[in-house]
Design a protein that fits this description.
The chain is of the alpha/beta class and about 270 residues long. About 25% of the residues lie in helices and about 20% in strands. The strands form 3 sheets. It has a 6-stranded mixed β-sheet, with helices on both faces. A 5-stranded antiparallel β-sheet has the order 4-3-2-1-5, with no helix packed on it. Strands 6-13 form a two-stranded antiparallel sheet. It is globular, with a radius of gyration of 19 Å.
Length: about 270
């Protein structure tokens, strides 16, 4: 085992130009390999210990520095809310979110963003493999307008090709959860809007399973907060309008190589009086 590499270390991969920060979550001593989870990105990867370099712990705060990178974005409730007329006052109700996440740290980061944006949200952390078994009971319990199914993934066997589900680490779990939500809970894609996937996920499989938005068309990495950026646009678009696809994706760090989707109605409802 490479001296100095321990579970919990923040590391970079030298062979990839030290481009992504990871945390070591498991070490396979017999193979001198480590299992890594991205700190900024929803990526899980294997790496030889000799390819890893430990970095300073304080760099682990990068996602929080990125949280407000779009400082000029539209503020909650003011977006899509029509001007009040004399004698008329409106109140906006953005769509409710159920966010199921395979990473507890990312979930906490996302829940903080939902709160900041004024979006009602319930967050549940569980391993990716557990999500399909739990999704129906959680949908029944919380009855959200928007379902987020995410965590970590990777396109780890490129020799098999993009269309082989075995090429992906967790895409089959996400796809099964989407399929159950769509076929056993709500078939109409405007009554339950689903975002599914993580880094390098099987985009076509997610969409074919019934998702409205998914990652990753270009098999690229997506940022920890990218699902929230898409949800923000859905939640604050009126139910009378469709969500402009480019607008839903433009504030994500991954862009349209990382996230794609179909025309979908918004979930915000106006009520009066205020």
């Amino acid at each position: 085992m490479k001296k100095g590499i321990k579970v919990g270390n923040v590391v970079v991969r030298k062979s990839y130009g030290k481009d992504i920060l990871f945390r070591v979550i498991f070490i396979q001593h017999e193979d001198n390999m480590a299992v890594l989870k991205g700190i900024d990105w929803r990526l899980i990867a294997d790496s030889p210990l000799d390819d890893l370099e430990v970095v300073k712990e304080e760099e682990d705060s990068v996602p929080y520095r990125d949280a407000n990178r779009n400082g000029g974005q539209i503020k909650p409730v003011q977006y899509m809310k029509p001007p009040n007329r004399p004698g008329q006052a409106y109140h906006a109700y953005p769509g409710k979110v159920l966010h199921m996440d395979g990473d507890a740290r990312y979930l906490a980061l996302c829940m903080g963003e939902y709160e900041r944006l004024g979006i009602p949200a319930v967050g549940v952390h569980m391993e990716e493999r557990e999500i399909p078994r739990a999704v129906l009971s959680l949908l029944t319990k919380y009855q959200p307008d928007i379902l987020v199914i995410t965590g970590h993934d990777s396109y780890r066997n490129r020799e098999r090709g993009e269309k082989d589900l075995k090429s992906y680490r967790n895409s089959h779990h996400f796809m099964e959860a989407v399929r159950r939500a769509r076929t056993e809970y709500e078939r109409h894609k405007d009554n339950l809007i689903i975002f599914a996937g993580a880094c390098q996920s099987y985009y076509e499989g997610m969409m074919d399973s019934g998702a409205n938005f998914a990652s990753s068309p270009g098999r690229v990495n997506i940022h920890a907060l990218d699902p929230v950026r898409v949800v923000e646009k859905i939640s604050y678009t009126s139910i009378r309008e469709t969500v402009p696809l480019l607008d839903a994706i433009q504030f994500t760090k991954a862009g349209n190589e990382g996230i794609g989707g179909i025309e979908t109605r918004g979930t915000m409802r106006l009520a009066m009086p205020d």
